[in-house]
UniProtKB/TrEMBL annotation:
It is found in: Cytoplasm. This is Ribosomal silencing factor RsfS. SUPFAM superfamilies: Nucleotidyltransferase. It comes from Gilvimarinus algae. Transmembrane segments: none annotated. The lineage of its organism: Bacteria, Pseudomonadati, Pseudomonadota, Gammaproteobacteria, Cellvibrionales. Its main location: cytoplasm.
Amino acid sequence: MSDKLNPLLLEALDDLKAKEVVQVDVRGKSDVMDTMIIACGTSKRHVKSLAGNAVEDAKKQGFQPFGVEGMESGDWVLVDFGDTVLHVMLPETREFYDLEKLWSVEPAGRSAD
């Protein structure tokens, strides 16, 4: 599923000029997802528009999100597609939570190969 969904999400983010888009492979680090896509918007309105566009494009292709959180505030919108979780944030929110660094750390008892 993610091999079709992820490019679709990346394109939807690019269509509305998302900033600093990264795709993080978390297989082996998470039992609940394989990929995180993280992007920034320039304002709360932009964050909501980016997430909304991604959800709309995904639905058109038959991908239904399990949940969408944060659309009310617009600081950080999380869209859960199961194997892929999309995070769209304001730059200051992204910097504070630093998900890329958090998910780059190897779990205890495992080594990086």
